[in-house]
Amino acid sequence: MAAALIALAGCATTAPTGGAQAPAVPAPGTSPAVAPRFAAAASAPAAAASRPDAAAPRPFDDVVKGATRQAGFLSLWRKDDKLWIEVPVDQLDQPFLLSANVSQSVGERWLYAGQMGAWWLVNFRRTSPTQMQLVALNTDFAATQPQMREVVSQSFSNSLLASTAIVSAPHPTRKSVLIDGGFLLTDLPGYGTSIETVYRLPFALDRGNSFFEKSRATDDLATIGARLHFGMARYPAPPLTPPAVVLPPPATLPDARSLFVGLVYSFTKLPDEPMRPRLADPRLGHFTHVVADYSSDTTFNPRRHHIARWRLEKQDPAAPLSPPKQPIVFWLDKNIPLSFRASVQAGVLEWNKAFEKIGFKDAIVVRQQADTDDWDTLDSRHASIRWFTGRDVGVAVGPHQADPRTGEIFDADIAMSDAFARHARRIATEDLGRPQALPGMHRHGGAEAACEVGFEALREMDFSLDLLEARGDLPVGGPAAEAVVQAVVKDTIMHEVGHTLGLKHNFKGSTVISREQLRDAGFTATHALSGSVMDYNPFNMPLAGERPTTLNNTTLGPYDYWAIEYAYKPLAPAEEAAELAKIAARSTDPLLAYSDDYEAGEDSVDPLVNRGDLGDDPLAYHRRRLELSRELWARVQARVPQPGDDPVRDRRALINGFASLPGTASMVGKYVGGMHTTRDVAGAPGARPTFVPVDPAKQRDALRFLTQGFFSTDSFRFEPQFLARLAPDYNESERGPVSIPAAVLAVQTTALDRLMSPGVATRLLDLPLYLPPEKRRGALTLAEVYGTVQDAVWSELRNGQEIDRLRRNLQREHLRRVQGMLLRGPGGLSADALSLVRYHAVRLQGQLRHAAGVPGRSVESRAHLQSCLSQLDEALRATMLRS
C-alpha cells in the first residue's frame, strides 16, 4: 500500500506495451544533438532491420493501433487508460506555455476548485533515443549581446519539470514521435506541498489510482484533464506530547485519508511574432514581468519591468474608434447561477468605457458557455469567470497567465465564491475567516499579491445589510436587498477584471472623492464613489438622519481610465517612450492618486493609503464607522424578538459590528508618526516631495480618537438582557455566549500594537529631520505618544475609579508590551525609544504603588493592581541588572 502511494514528480511512467523500461535521464551536458538523431532514425531503416535493438521504440503505427487521435498543435492519442502526446520534430527546443489549473479540490483552506495554478515557459528536449525532457526555461535573466548571452546561459539554470519515455519511432512522414503522457499523472505542479501546508499529514500521490479525463487539441492548444489521487494508508495517531500547533484534518471529505485533485493542463502555442513589451512606470500600478537584462554594463540596475497586458491592435489604425483585430473575450462558465449572469456581464463590459477613450470599440466581449459544451473554461484559450464554493470561503480572485518574456497575457480565470448569494439572504457568517493564501496560489501576474476584495465586499455587505435592516430601510429578501447584492457582484467583478487586464490594487484611490460629493445624490448617481475600482471600496453608508445616496461603487474611476490608457493605447514604436512619459507625467493630477499593496501594509506610513476607507478624510470616515457600529448595536438591542425571527440574527449583527473595527484602529494609528507619500519624479513640473510629515494637529486628533474612542469602555456597552438572548446555532459546533471582552480586546490590542511599534517610534524620533526649525517645536513627539497612551490606559490610577474587566484586560496588554520592550531589548527600538519606555515605566510603577494602597476598590481591582506592580517591578529590576 505504501509503495502504491509514493510517486516521484518528473519520473518516467509505465513503459509502453512490448517496449523496454525507459533509461535513466542522462547526466547534464551529455545530451547529443536532437534533430540529427531524428534524421538518422528516419533515413537508415535497413541498418536498423539488420541489427534490431531490443530497447528501440516501436514503429509509430504499431503503438497507436486502435487509438483515437485528436489532431492539433500537439496531437493527442487516446487508447483505454493510456495517453500519448505527439511531439513534432520542429517543436523540439521551441518554447511554449504550459499551465496547470485546478478544476477540483478539497473545498477548504485555499484548496478550492476553479483556481488558476502554476505556469511555465517550457520546451521539449530529447536526451536519448528513448527519453524526452520537459524543461522549464529560465526567463528571469537574458542578454541580446552574444557573449553575455553565453554568460547568462552558464550562470542561471533551467529546471526539469518532467522526464518521460519516447514510445515510438518517428512517424514515417510527419517525423514526429510519441511520448508517454503519464508524466502528467505525477504531482508536476507541486500541489502536494499545499496539501501538506494546510494539514501536516502524510498525504502522498497515489499514481495507480490517478487517471486522465477529457482531452482536446486545436491548432494552438492541447489540453488534458487529469485526476490525481492523494492518500495515506492510515491516519496517524496523535502524539503523546501534543505539538504547539495542531492543524485539524480535512473536514470536507467522506474519508479523511483520501482526496482527489482535478487539474487542467494546457500546452499553448506561442504567436509567431512576440508582442512588443511595454515598460512599466512606477507612477501607475500594473503587474509586471521582470527580466534582468545583462546586454549592457552601463545601467546600474539590469532589471526591466514589462507590464502585463493583452495583445490589442486596431483593425483600422487610422480610425478614431475601431474594433480590435482580436478582442479580449471573457467566457461565462455554465456553472454561474442564472440570477447573477447579467451582473457579471455588466461588470466585465464596464471596462469598455476605458478602452473607448483610447480608440477601441468593443475591446472586451462576453460570451456564454453553453450547457452542452464539453470543454473546460480553465483551459488556456478561454479567459473565464466561474463560480466555486467551499466550507470556509468568501473570496473572489482574478489572476492571469502570461508570456514572462514580454508580459503578453494569454489567459485569465476569475473565480467567484458563491458566498455572495448566501450572505445576501442573511445566512450566518461566523465560520468565514480571512483568506490565507498558500504559496504560489492565485498570483496576479508575477506578483504574490493576494486579493481579498471578495472577503472585504462580503464583510461590508453583511454589515450594511444588517444596519439597513435594523433601520427598517431594507427588508430581508426583498427586491431592494437583492439589488444591493447584484450591485456588489458587479463591483467585485469589475475589480477582478481589472486585475486580469494587468492592473494592481490602488489603495489611495478612495481618497480623491470628497465627503461632500459622497453625500450628494446627484454626484454619486453619475460618478464613481472612488478614484479607482481597484481599491477596496466600502459601502457609502449614511449616518442616522442623513439623506442616503448611492450605496456602493457602480463604475470606473478616473485612475482606471488612466491605467488602461498607459497599458493599451496604440503607439508607434518610435514614439512610444515619449508618449508613455507624457501619460505618466499626469500623476500630479489629484484625481490620479495611486499607491499599492506594499504601501498599505502593516507598517506603512501614509494614512491616506488604506484598504477599506472612503472619502478624502480617512480619519473622519473611521469616526463614522465606529458610530455606525454603535448605531447597529443600539438598534438590535432595542429590537423586540418576534416568533419566526432568525434565531441567530442579533448574534450575527453584534459580530458584524465588530468585524471591521480592528482594521479601523490600525488605519487610524497610521496618522501617528505618519508621512504622506507621492510617486512624483523629482525635477518634473509640479513634482511634490516624496515624504511629507502628517500635520501634527491631525496626528494628535487621531491619537485622541484611539485613546477616547477605543480605549474607553463606553464605546462597548451592551444591555445584559441583550447578551443573554444571543443564542448560537445549535445545529453547528460553535456554542456558548459571545465574548465581549475578547472582541473589544482584539480592537484595542490592534491600536496598542500600532502605537507602540518600532516603526512608529523610529518615525516620531526622525520627524524633526523633515521639518524646518520653526515647525519642530509643535511636532508630536514619541514621549507625548507614550505618555498619552499610558495615561489613557491607566486613567483609574488618577481618578480612583473601579477598574472593570474590559479595562483590566487593556491594562494587562499594555503592561505586557512594556515588559517585552524592557526585557527583550532593542527588537528594532532605538536607544532613545527604550529610554523613553523605561522613563514612563518608572512613572507607572510609582502610580501603581500608590494606587495599590488606596482602599475602597474591589478585591478584583486590588489583586489586579498588585499583580501588575509585581510584574513591572521585576521587569525594571531585570532591565537594570542587564544594563
What would you note in describing this structure?
The chain is of the alpha+beta class and 883 residues long. Among the domains are: 3-237 and 251-268, no CATH class; 794-882. 35% of the residues lie in helices and 15% in strands. It contains 27 helices and 23 strands. Strands 4, 5, 6, 8, 10, 11, 12 and 13 form an 8-stranded antiparallel sheet that branches. Strands 16, 17, 18, 19, 20 and 21 form a 6-stranded mixed sheet that branches. A hairpin with a 5-residue loop joins β1 and β2 (76-79). The relative contact order is 0.07. Mean pLDDT is 88; it is low at 1-52 and 425-449.
Shape: globular
Mean pLDDT: 88
Gyration radius over CA? 31 Å
Poorly predicted regions are 1-52, 425-449
Specify the helix fraction band.
Answer: 25-40%
Alpha plus pi helix count: 27
Major sheet size, sense and barrel closure = 8 strands, antiparallel
Percentage beta strand? 15-25%
Brief summary:
The chain is an alpha+beta fold.
Please render the helix and strand layout as text:
Blueprint: H1 34-43, H2 45-50, H3 60-63, E1 68-70, E2 76-79, E3 82-87, E4 96-104, E5 115-128, E6 131-136, E7 141-142, H4 146-155, E8 159-165, E9 177-180, H5 191-199, E10 204-205, E11 211-218, E12 221-231, E13 258-268, E14 288-293, E15 303-307, E16 328-332, H6 338-349, H7 352-357, E17 364-368, E18 384-388, E19 396-397, E20 400-402, E21 409-417, H8 419-424, H9 453-471, H10 479-500, H11 515-518, H12 521-526, H13 558-568, H14 576-584, H15 618-638, H16 649-659, H17 661-669, E22 675-677, E23 691-693, H18 696-710, H19 720-724, H20 740-755, H21 758-766, H22 773-776, H23 782-793, H24 796-799, H25 805-824, H26 831-852, H27 859-882
Parallel strand pairs: 7-14, 16-17, 16-18, 18-21
Antiparallel strand pairs: 1-2, 2-3, 3-9, 4-5, 4-13, 5-6, 6-8, 10-12, 11-12, 12-13, 14-15, 19-21, 20-21, 22-23
